[in-house]
Amino acid sequence: MAGRWRSPLRGPWLTSVFGAVLLVTLPLLIVTGLLDHAAYSPQFGQAFPRDVGWLRLPPFDWPTRPSWLFRLTQGLHVTLGIMLVPVVLAKLWSVIPKLFDWPPARSVAQVLERLSLLLLVGGILFQFATGLLNIQYAYLFGFDFYTAHYYGAWVFTAALVAHVGLKLPRLVSALRSRPPRRELATPRAGTRPEPPDPDALVPVHPGAATISRRGALALVGGLSLLLGALTVGQSLDGAWRRTALLLPRGREPGGGPNGFPVNRTAAAAGVRDDDTGEGWRVTLRAGGRTVALDRAALLALPQHTARLPIACVEGWSTLQTWTGVRLRDLAALAGAGDLNSAHVRSLERAGLFNQATLQANQVLDGDSLLALTVNGADLSPDHGFPARIIVPALPGVHCTKWVSEIEFRTRGDG
């Protein structure tokens, strides 16, 4: 089996270079993923999975400032994850002889190492594969993506910590063993195998080099940059959005004031024209008081305009100009006192996100709106006509469309 792996590029140095890149970037991927989970306000039971036991994050109110916070964390999480695919595959290629090492266990230490490696490799492949399928809307799982991705992240994180603890000294010594400038200056003709190593990554009978180490690094780095270039446009407006070829709903869907991406259309949500016609009312509740307002009554109230992003969990986002009634003004109109939260319900009859609970700071922010228009025009049916929620730094799925009711809850409500 050892004779099958003959590339003279394999060895501790190249493996450690890929490992160092992942050591820097994977924690950022983990942190942004956990922050995005926190953005859904799990204290209200609306983050998935709902009950995670002792794996739940410390409770805190997700901030509304900066208004682009969720746009940054989710966009970075998705874009960085896509860019790391070539690095992960290159790292696995560099250590593939270890996966076929025989006998599989020579000592207790080796058993622990291989177990951590199994969880690490299995975990990263599972997280990347399911994450990529999710943002492509290819739901081939047969299980709930959010639940599996959350628990999978913790398994992978534990394996990564254990693996780094075992391998960090060797990574450092391997990086110091060969001057980077010399390797980057060595062409294919001058590429030679590294000296034999304790991990047996260096082939026993190496073949001729078909590419230099600098060529391999340039290939992997170039692929990562290409994937980034084909992804980053999802978080940018204008001409850049047309370059987001890897994101099916991150691209510009059309022109006009309502010409920006949408995840769920009115038809898909089961919202009909007669639901949003002249008989539509938004009902405000606070304590025992109820106030019903039609669209004309809402337009007669003081209007506020704010330029705020909509950011989706799949990674795309867009910045638009919204006008409507401040949520805090509606809370005052309903007679809400010491505000604790606001529960928003949609006309949407089914779906995971036909309702959302907003934190007190989200309701009270001066730019939080029940939006009636966007970019100077009425909301289109697909963008939530006759009214939708817009809150700074709030995940897009909680910016509820087709709002039918807002219940303002005070701290005395329990």
Give me the secondary-structure topology.
Elements: H1 12-38, H2 69-83, H3 85-99, H4 108-135, H5 145-177, H6 180-185, H7 213-229, H8 266-269, E1 282-286, E2 289-293, H9 295-300, E3 304-311, E4 317-326, H10 327-334, E5 339-346, E6 355-359, H11 360-364, E7 369-374, E8 377-378, E9 388-390, E10 403-410
Parallel strand pairs: 1-10
Antiparallel strand pairs: 1-2, 3-4, 4-7, 5-6, 5-10, 7-8, 7-9
Helix pairs in contact: 1-2, 1-3, 1-5, 2-7, 3-4, 3-7, 4-5
Describe the protein's architecture and organization.
The protein has 414 residues and is of the alpha+beta class. The chain folds into two domains: 2-229, no CATH class; 266-413, Alpha-Beta Complex (Sulfite Oxidase, Chain A, domain 2), CATH 3.90.420. It is built from eleven helices and ten strands. Strands 2-1-10-5-6 form a five-stranded mixed beta sheet. A hairpin with a 5-residue loop joins strand 3 and strand 4. Helix 3 runs antiparallel to helix 4 (108-135). The protein is elongated. The termini are far apart. Keywords: Membrane, Transmembrane, Transmembrane helix. It comes from Micromonospora echinaurantiaca. Residues 179-202 are annotated as: Disordered.
Order of helices and strands: HHHHHHHHEEHEEHEEHEEEE
Largest sheet: 5 strands, mixed
Order of adjacent strands in the largest pleated sheet? 2-1-10-5-6
Task: Label the structural class.
Answer: alpha+beta
Organism: Micromonospora echinaurantiaca
Transmembrane segments: 12-35, 75-96, 117-139, 151-172, 216-236
Keywords: Membrane, Transmembrane, Transmembrane helix
Domain Oxidoreductase molybdopterin-binding: 277-410
